[in-house]
Amino acid sequence: MPNQGWIYRDKISKNQAGLSLLAYYTGKYPHSSPEEWLDRILSGAILVNGRPASPDTVLEIGQQLTYQRPPWTEPDVPLFFEVLYEDAEVLVVAKPSGLPVLAGGGFLEHTLIHLVHQHYPDVTPYPIHRLGRGTSGIVLMAKSKPARAKLSQQMREGKITKIYRALVGRGDIPDNFTINQAIGKIAHPILGYIYGANADGLSARSDGRVLKKHPDSTLLAVQIFTGRPHQIRIHLAFFGYPLIGDRLYGLGGLPRPDAVPGDCGYYLHANQIVFNHPSTGKTIPISCQAPPELEILNPV
């Protein structure tokens, strides 16, 4: 069933002024071809300050652009979540692998945030952090702006503990290890840029521990102290042990050009989170059962 469509809004900055309307969309959104953007402009789906414009219209600072995307059928995903903890200010849920947290990449209504809004029509839960589409497990949300501000501050200051389960290949992995590798933007032929191991990026730290060794795989617990995009996927690949089934990040923590972040198939689960309640200050630990592939039977 098609969704309701969406209006994408942009405001022209100083650096973008002087571009033609077609050059702006072609350059900023390379996921569509120049021919596709041309057709949208000519059909009147793209407006400049609320009015149709020609493809060669020269853009000026402060102009408002809108693109009315018609309804489309989104990819099938698991459309459910589990409530792990809830009170007047905080909501903690578990999402399945395959369900995006936020809109993007062809998803609008098939997202965790849309499902939560449907379930809680009188409040607007704010996600304090994100999980990749293929990652399952815990997502912390705030039910009010004050709670959002306090929880976001805890996140920025590293006061929220987040521990994941990850499955990598077999090998001579140390029982305990720390990965300090900066993560930053890298050029990507489809998306324009994507995150990966980059010495010029932002600092990032992940601590890992071996939980169980199988004949053909190794189960890890990974705690992250920073929240860079795709941090665990990038760090473990940089360390020499990419997640099993990860089509995007290979050895070295660099993205493959023929894959995108939304590709699923890897084994990563947000297993535990510990935070201080935004009003009471009470320490709240939450855990979420891992999928069978990431469960511990006989720890090392």
Provide the fold topology.
Layout: E1 6-11, H1 21-28, H2 34-42, E2 46-48, E3 51-52, E4 64-69, E5 82-86, E6 90-95, H3 112-119, E7 126-127, E8 136-142, H4 145-156, E9 161-169, E10 176-180, E11 183-188, E12 192-197, E13 205-213, E14 217-224, H5 231-239, E15 268-276, E16 283-287
Parallel strand pairs: 8-15
Antiparallel strand pairs: 1-4, 2-3, 2-4, 5-6, 6-8, 7-8, 9-14, 9-15, 10-13, 11-12, 13-14, 15-16
Helix pairs in contact: 1-2
How would you describe this structure to a colleague?
There is one protein chain. By secondary structure, the chain is α+β, with helices and mostly antiparallel strands. The protein folds into 3 domains: 6-69, Structural Genomics Hypothetical 15.5 Kd Protein In mrcA-pckA Intergenic Region, Chain A (Roll); 75-157, Pseudouridine synthase, CATH 3.30.2350.10; 159-266, Pseudouridine synthase, CATH 3.30.2350.10. The chain has helices spanning 21-28, 34-42, 112-119, 145-156, 231-239, and strands at 6-11, 46-48, 51-52, 64-69, 82-86, 90-95, 126-127, 136-142, 161-169, 176-180, 183-188, 192-197, 205-213, 217-224, 268-276, 283-287. The strands form 3 sheets. Strands 5, 6, 7, 8, 9, 10, 13, 14, 15 and 16 form a 10-stranded mixed sheet that branches. It is globular. The N and C termini lie far apart (48 Å). It comes from Microcystis viridis Mv_BB_P_19951000_S68D. Responsible for synthesis of pseudouridine from uracil.
